[in-house]
Amino acid sequence: MTASFKGKAPSRRAFLKGSIAAGGAVFGASAARAAEPDPLITEVQDWATGLGDGVDATPYGLPIQYESDVIRRNVEWLTADTISSINFTPIHALDGTITPQGCAFERHHSGAIELRKDDYRLMINGLVDTPLIFTYEDLERFPRENHVYFCECAANTGMEWAGAQLNGAQFTHGMIHNMEYTGVPLRTLLNEAGVQTEGKWVYVEGADASSNGRSIPLEKALDDVLVAFKANGEALRKEHGYPVRLVVPGWEGNMWIKWLRRVEVTTQAIESREETSKYTDTLANGTSRKWTWVMDAKSVVTSPSPQSPIKHGHGPLVVTGLAWSGRGAITGVDVSLDGGMNWQPARLAQPGQSKALTRFYLDIEWNGEEMFLQSRARDDTGYVQPSKAQLRDVRGENSIYHNNCIQTWWVKPNGEAENVEVS
Amino acid sequence: AAADARFGLGRPALPEEVAAWDLDVAPDGTGLPVGSGSVEDGEMLFSDNCAVCHGEFAEGVDNWPKLAGGEGTLADKDPLKTVGSYWPYLSTVWDYVHRSMPFGAAQTLSPDEVYAITAYILYSNYLVEDDFVLSNENFLEVEMTNTDGFIVDDREEAEKHFWTAEPCMENCKDSVEITMRAAVLDVTPEEEGAGEE
Q: Which residues contact A49 (CB under 8 A, 6 or more apart)?
């Protein structure tokens, strides 16, 4: 693919902006004694004397204007158009684990459709005793569950297979979001229709033109798959499947069917376009893996990173990032400052939850030394996140999907960071 | 409530409703409607409905998907994965075209039209002759190039060395050299938003 963007990388721009804002003088001087009284303190500020907005100013609020760079971003050259395309969560600027829905990534194959609850229908058919139709109101009458899970696109980090390409954690690792879902177990709905003994798979599809049909083994469908209608406390966003989506814990995001309209119990996998042409992983010898459903253990340092350079000078530095595994819970994250020669355990903000994002921190003293920052996740199955070299040894460079390699950020003495590969 | 409790919610689906939505076709032909279409008819239909994105010969326009070509390239540095070179089953072509194409006007093709377009895509991949007529009856006789090119996920075997009891923590390698830099490639979009002039 041809590069179609001009100008400096975002890290450079962000860095320069930061330097200018800080006047250049305070760099490395955070603990210095103030020479003059600070007018932000000694002079009465407008907000301390006048009035703010009334409670009726914003019935449903957006982030304050100063956070307007914390947004989804698109990479134009990745796809033929913006309808069957992807955008990226600004993970470099977020903390904790819950992704705000308004900047949580989108991936559509025929656009984000608008489907009213009144127009919504869910069909269960195929090898069932009674094919059923549910309205949205019907779904709200089944017993509900709440779970936090990550949804990671199978192609997350996919542009990085052949080398370091996109300069920022948002672009290399931002096809992911993590939400608290409310919904009904799929098993409850299947039970209502009565699955027949010949049933071995379910085929699930959306109401949109692409349909995004996928085959799921019945065992998974009856285990933890959720038919969700709320995320992070409120209705799903239109672009995330309003009013109803499938949540398939730990499995590649493509299977999280949005605008879910039909679940068919079958004897066999349908081998749809999204599980043959796409979401199959070609190995070096030309054969391809199919049904690579689980997302393996993975992590990334979100700050410092190319879009989140060090602007505060020397001294205490918070190194932070995210770890997750589709196989279970994160049990630990190791961080290296020297490109993987030596590692130290990071601190998990909360114990790892199964198939959900986990936040980690490493608090260090940084005095301008060059760093090659890496993170390495471990999960409760004993899986250790591999290097890109280890993955390439098994898979070659053309599998597109499922790149869970260790990421390296080169942090330079001036605080800028860059996406690199190291030996 | 017991694990198998039923709640009496929903209503039985009518046969017409199931027929309207259950359109999927499996590799063994399950789900195919009765019908047929020729390469000749398919060429006209493809030209009218598909060629603006996929090219007159299914070779693709700009960044839009190429549907033909690439045979024998799957182990290359840059494989070309098309219906001819990569797709394992013809059922998927029929099913996907019928349900989701043309892009922006999906579900506008009749079964006979889909048979004809599928026949033309086969022809454009040199898999059938120009007088070929595809129907629900001869559908399974068409041989696809890469049917045997897929294996079921074997990560737990092929990658079992990633399940490591104790990863290395100290002195894991002697040196670290930069081997590739994203800034050199320079294909990342510019920042937009706060502070942008």
A: none
- Secondary structure of A136-158 in HEC code, one letter for each residue: HHHHCCCCCEEEEEEEECCCCCH
Q: Determine the pLDDT at residue B191.
A: 60
Q: How far is B92 from chain A (nearest CA, A)?
A: 5
| pLDDT of residue A240 exceeding 70 | yes
Residues of B in contact with A109 (CB under 8 A): 100
- Of A74-83, A249-258, A385-394, the range with the lowest mean pLDDT is A74-83
Q: What is the mean pLDDT of chain A?
A: 93
Tell me, yes or no, if B24 comes closer than 8 A to chain A by beta carbon. Answer: yes
Q: What is the pLDDT of residue A77?
A: 86
- Both tokens of B1, joined, read 């409530």
pLDDT tens, position by position, A338-353: 999 999 999 999 999 9
Contact B124, B182 (CB under 8 A): no
pLDDT at A311: 97
Nearest to A97 by CA among A361, A372, A419: A361
As a 3-state breakdown, chain A gives helix, strand, coil percent values, each rounded to 5, of 15, 30, 50
Find out whether the peptide bond into A345 is cis, omega within 30 degrees of 0: no
Q: Does B147 touch chain A if contact means CB atoms closer than 8 Å?
A: no
Percentages of chain B per state (helix, strand, coil), in multiples of 5: 30, 10, 60
At residue A298's C-alpha, the angle toward residues A411 and A301, to 5°, is 25
- Going by pLDDT thresholds of 50, 70 and 90, the confidence category of residue B196 is very low
Residue A78 has pLDDT above 90, yes or no: no
- Quick one: which of B181, B173, B163 has its CA closest to A339? B173
Q: How many Cα atoms within 13 Å fall on the side-chain side of residue A224?
A: 14
Q: To probe the interface with A, which of B4, B9, B186 has the most A CB atoms within 10 Å? A: B9
Question: By the CB < 8 Å criterion, does A27 face chain B?
Answer: no
The token pair that represents A411 in the structure block: 């942090």
Question: What is the pLDDT confidence band of residue A371, given thresholds at 50, 70 and 90?
Answer: very high
A422: amino acid identity, one letter: V
State the Cα torsion A29-A31-A33-A39 to the nearest 10°: 80
Number of neighbouring beta carbons within 10 Å of residue B124:
25
Token pair listed for B16: 């017409």
Give all domains of chain A, ordered by start, each with its CATH number: 81-161+176-288 (3.90.420.10), 298-420 (2.60.40.650)
Contact A349, A324 (CB under 8 A): no
- pLDDT(A54) > 60: yes
- Predicted TM-score (pTM) above 0.80: yes
CB contacts, 8 Å: A71 with chain B: 192-193
Q: Is A17 touching B (CB cutoff 8 A)?
A: yes
ipTM above 0.90, yes or no: yes
